[in-house]
């Protein structure tokens, strides 16, 4: 299954960083997502884009995860020559991660 089957995501950018929140549709899937979605796995998934570290924050009270990807936007929207220098599209991209179907 893909992450999109059990969660949705929101993302934004600030300078050269991307911030992605992953929120399960059902609170009961939160622990499963926590087990499957490590900072290392997210960093590997975005390896072509993210040139810095990835930090994962667990927001247990809201049953959500927040990932901060450093050095991911080629300098940010004002500095890059890239066509899409915003982090918004990363929310849709992260939902393509394959999860092990161990539920």
Give a brief outline of the structure:
With 103 residues, the chain is of the alpha+beta class. The chain has helices at 30-36, 39-45, 90-94; strands at 7-14, 17-24, 54-59, 64-69. The chain has a single domain, classed as Alpha-Beta Plaits, CATH 3.30.70.
H/E topology pattern: EEHHEEH
Largest sheet: 4 strands, antiparallel
Number of domain modules: 1
Number of helices: 3
Q: Whole-number radius of gyration?
A: 13 Å
Architecture, CATH level 2?
2-Layer Sandwich
Instruction: Give the proportion of residues in helices.
Output: 10-25%
Shape assignment: globular
User: So what's the CATH class?
Assistant: Alpha Beta
Chain-averaged pLDDT: 86
How does the helix and strand content classify structurally? alpha+beta
Q: Span from first to last CA?
A: 10 Å
Strand content: 25-35%
Q: Which regions contain 5 or more consecutive residues with pLDDT less than 50? A: none
How many DSSP E strands?
4
Strand order of the largest sheet: 1-2-4-3
CATH fold group: Alpha-Beta Plaits
Ordered list of secondary-structure elements with their pairings:
Elements: E1 7-14, E2 17-24, H1 30-36, H2 39-45, E3 54-59, E4 64-69, H3 90-94
Antiparallel strand pairs: 1-2, 2-4, 3-4
Explain this structure to me?
Pfam families: AtuA_ferredoxin. The protein is of the alpha+beta class. It has one domain: Alpha-Beta Plaits (2-Layer Sandwich), CATH 3.30.70. It has helices at residues 30-36, 39-45, 90-94; strands at 7-14, 17-24, 54-59, 64-69. The model has no long low-confidence stretch (mean pLDDT 86).
């Amino acid at each position: 299954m893909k992450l999109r089957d059990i969660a949705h995501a929101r993302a934004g950018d600030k300078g050269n960083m991307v911030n992605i929140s992953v929120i399960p549709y059902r609170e009961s899937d939160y622990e499963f997502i926590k087990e499957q979605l490590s900072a290392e796995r997210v960093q590997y998934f975005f390896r072509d884009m993210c040139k810095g570290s990835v930090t994962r924050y667990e927001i247990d009270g809201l049953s959500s995860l927040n990932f901060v990807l450093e050095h991911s936007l080629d300098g940010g929207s004002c500095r890059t020559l890239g066509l899409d220098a915003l982090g918004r599209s990363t929310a849709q991209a992260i939902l393509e991660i394959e999860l092990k179907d161990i539920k």
